[in-house]
Amino acid sequence: MRLTQQRLICFSLPFALACGALPRTATAATPSTTVEAAKWGPWRPASDRKRANFDAGFSNLELGGYMEFEQACKRDTGLPEKQIEYRFRLSRLIDQIGTGTVETGCWFKGKILHRYSSPAIRPIDASVDCLRVISPQGGGLNVRSDAGVNNSLVGVVGNGRSVKPTYHPASIIERGGRYWVAIAAPIAGWVSNGRPGGVGNMRICSK
Questions:
Q1: What is the pLDDT of residue 15?
Q2: Of 18, 27, 84, 195, which has the fewest beta carbons less than 10 angstroms from its beta carbon?
Q3: CB-based contact 42:153 (threshold 8 Å)
Q4: Which fold has domain 131-204?
Q5: Hey, where are the domains in the chain?
């Protein structure tokens, strides 16, 4: 079964349970584009996962999606599980705000055959509830009623101030060429972390 890729980059557990499983497996194996390279780090062998310093797999819902991904890899490579070469990559967001995405793929005949994506966090940031606004423009961040520049403005958070993500892992959506993060304080709404590949508008408060 082929599953379409979702625009939701990372989601909270309550959201995932409400919407059902959101695995992202893809049979298309196009080469990395400039935009894709801006969003993701390089593909790495599965043996590097521990050194990559991240946690993923927060619910049984994700486990079910990953098992489906493994079955697709076995079916379409024709190889036993132990002979399949798995690789992974991390979204660059994880180094900016401590929350991002890990994408696992099975490598076969020179390309990634299937992919599976799930939320990922830095273990040291397991209790992160604070992001510092560091907008390069210097004017702080607009808080919108929903993700997207066309949604109503509900407030502004100045540079140097902190915001609290609504969920853990953070709820992050890519919309209109920008990453949007749901926040609960100091104003409830959505703020932009900028475009993929950019320096970002926020950092973990402890950094």
A1: 33
A2: 18
A3: no
A4: SH3 type barrels. (2.30.30)
A5: 8-125, 131-204
